Amino acid sequence: MYGSGYGAPQGYGAPQGYPPQQGYGGAQQGFAVYGQRYTMAPPNVDPNIAVWFQQVDTNRSGFIDSRELANALSYGGWVPFSIEATTAMIKMYNTNGTGQLNLVEFQHLVTYLNTMRHNFFLVDTDRSGRLDYNEICRVLQQSGYFFDQRLLPKILSKFDRQKVGTIGLDSYIELCLFMSSTKEIFQAQDYQRTGMISMGYDQFLNACLALQYGFN
Fold first, then answer.
1. CATH code for the domain in which residue 87 is found
2. Residue 69: what pLDDT?
């Protein structure tokens, strides 16, 4: 089940108190996925996720953009995410360069976000709702990111927008998306898996573009 099993607040990761499916048009309206119409959620999609998606896909296009995603997550009981954060999420999970998510991509994102929130609260031992420098170091290492810790203040300065020395859940997820992107770009060039790469300027420029605009 999405939004349960991690000790999270009720409704986390899914809309609180879904109306029954027919409240959103039910079988007659159906779901739009990859431009096709379905009378029910596809078999590889959680029906609750499908109902949630349809609720925020107000124009029934079968896709949601960064603002619709922000609304979806707020409706689902998450902390409010900035448009920058939801744009970063879409960059990571959109596979065709449209800048929007379809239903299947949205489900993948929800699964990822639930995992990230679980990790966040495992490390947030004082239950402050924010992670300090030491907590961030620990959670990144637990997630398999090992690098010169002298770089961490520079990395955090990008996500600690309030400049208070801590980050909340939304900024933490942005940080994880950034780290995941850098790791994916690096590993694409690390053919021998040595942890070292040699890049020409074209490769470097392409990596910069991937970080800025996504992988498409």
1. 1.10.238.10
2. 92
Contact 116, 176 (CB under 8 A): yes
Angle (CA) 154 155 157, round 5°: 65
Examine residue 11 and state whether it is found in any structural domain, yes or no: no
Threshold 0.70, pTM exceeds: no
- Position 14 in a domain: no
- Look up tokens 């896709």; give the residue: 63
| Residues 101, 65: Cα–Cα separation, whole Å | 7
pLDDT at 18: 29
- Report how far residue 14's alpha carbon sits from residue 74's, in angstroms, rounded to the nearest whole number: 10
Burial 22-50 (b: 16+ CB within 10 A, else e): eebeeeeebbbbeeeebeebeeebbebbb
Q: In this predicted structure, which of 32-46, 107-121, 124-138, 141-155 has the lowest mean pLDDT?
A: 32-46
Tell me the torsion sign for CA atoms 37, 42, 45, 47. Answer: positive
Residue 76 domain flag: yes
What's the distance, CA 28 to chain centroid? 31
- Which residues form the domain of 209? 21-213
